[in-house]
């Protein structure tokens, strides 16, 4: 059932309705054409959000609000969805609203992945420009427009019958509330005096001088705009390239499929196995293009949590698949063990030595990446470098937050990925500086009660310190301390950290890591290398 708009502000065409069932299914019908926007299996709140996202995209492409009749388990509602993502009950639309009144609303982000199409202006008004005479009910928007107006020979008037300019009217402030359908009502804030003056000046000028802004054209992918006959932009080269099919998978290299291909000289070439396709997808994630240098910080305030092992193997995986420009950095305020677990170099210089000579690398005209070889330790075929912490037992030097920031700024000029191993003191200034610089946090723990409790305490502390978003985006890595870890504890830790961080991944026990000596990537078992590749791919997804 449809109800009249008491203000005549929003045309009742096209006919839009949304139906939400108790099992979370959401269906939107536009002019009799239904489309399922969310299948069952969720809840009503998710279904409402999916409907709002879908309709926000439609209104953004169409260039005006839409009336929507919704029916869900709580009953029917009559709403208006605006291009800026606001949702209002139909009977709460601003009095005497016109096309210009909602055009002046400040844009805001739409829910989910929807993007608001930027509205331009023209002397004809955006609603008429977008739909022309096909939109029923549009006569209420300009009482002085004759039926044939809107064409090139009969431009539309921008003034009211008494000759005054049509000023925008904003809805009054109201606290955030929800409609009968459960969709959020987003009130607009009252405009400041300066903003009102600016808006009034702009509208007044529009009645005397023509505006030259480009008329907005809805997206070519907006199916609703196509159905309404709105002019679509001509396709360009990016449009053509976007329609290319995905690159075909190459021939199988591993497993029995790869063996058959090699034995037959390629005459028989089976498709890659699901495991090989998963491997290729992980490698592609690790190799993805990054927007500037990125910092990965590995944390757990307890010793023996495998922080150093994780930092080295994450850096090695990045190095092996990205081809260098990766650094593993021991950010311990005094002494750490990263340098001991790495392959040695001809020198024993550490972060303290680099800090002392840092002036050599602050001048972009004379500093060279090769000069860093006297301070970092190359890891050969693993294609990454290691910057060790102070190893002099008699030294009184330490790294604080200022020193960390100076080193980080210099090293970020030479490396694309910096993997930072941290100490055990969360209150140390350099530890906190590393957290502040982190693009991706990695929380590590063995599957033991003590190290897991330490990791949970860390997450609680960071959340209390205002770093909840950092924790939420973190990757949790659970290392098995034995071949067969406690399954009940494993499940408990997965349940706990899955609710705190973006993902939780397991790495198996590997005898090659038990001795505590230098870690050789090639000595790892295939299952370990595959697990650390999955970990590194998840980290790269967060960068």
TrEMBL record:
Biological process terms in GO annotation: negative regulation of cell division
Domain of life according to the entry: Bacteria
Region feature (Disordered): 84-216
InterPro entries, alphabetized: P-loop_NTPase, ParA/MinD_ATPase
Gene Ontology MF annotations: ATP binding; ATP hydrolysis activity
Biased composition range(s): Low complexity: 187-210
One annotated Gene Ontology cellular component of this protein: cytosol
Residue stretches of biased makeup (Basic residues): 115-125
PANTHER family: ESX-1 SECRETION-ASSOCIATED PROTEIN ESPI, SEPTUM SITE-DETERMINING PROTEIN MIND HOMOLOG, CHLOROPLASTIC-RELATED
The protein, known as: MinD-like ATPase involved in chromosome partitioning or flagellar assembly
